[in-house]
Amino acid sequence: MPATHRNGISNEDISVEVSVTLGTAYLRVHQLLKLGRGAVVELDRNVNDYVDIYANDILIGRGEVVVTDDETIGISVIPSDIK
Q: H/E element holding 34?
């Protein structure tokens, strides 16, 4: 049974946006406009680096990219010292 808070809202009623950042790149507008199909944008991370996990734009952890059993992309959360 979900926990209900004093104001009557349960945990199931709260929405959180979760996003994952693989890396970042800084481009000038003219570079961005030149990108076409098949263009590759180099990120500031290596293939084996962890990805950052955000909840409502707040860094909450790190993880590794995995391919799930049904061939979708997922994130395996790793222990982190982020508080």
A: helix 29-34
Q: How many residues belong to the chain?
A: 83
- The superfamily (CATH) of domain 13-78 is SpoA-like (2.30.330.10)
In whole angstroms, give the CA distance from residue 60 to residue 45. 19
* Total-model pTM: 0.72
Q: 16-74, pLDDT tens digit by residue?
A: 999 999 999 999 999 999 999 999 999 999 988 999 999 999 999 999 999 999 999 99
Pairwise CA distance, residues 22 & 5, whole Å: 35
| Beta carbons of 18 and 53 less than 8 angstroms apart | yes
Q: What is the largest CA-CA distance in the chain?
A: 54
The pair of structure tokens assigned to 71 is: 């061939």
> Where do the structural domains in the chain lie, given as residue ranges?
13-78
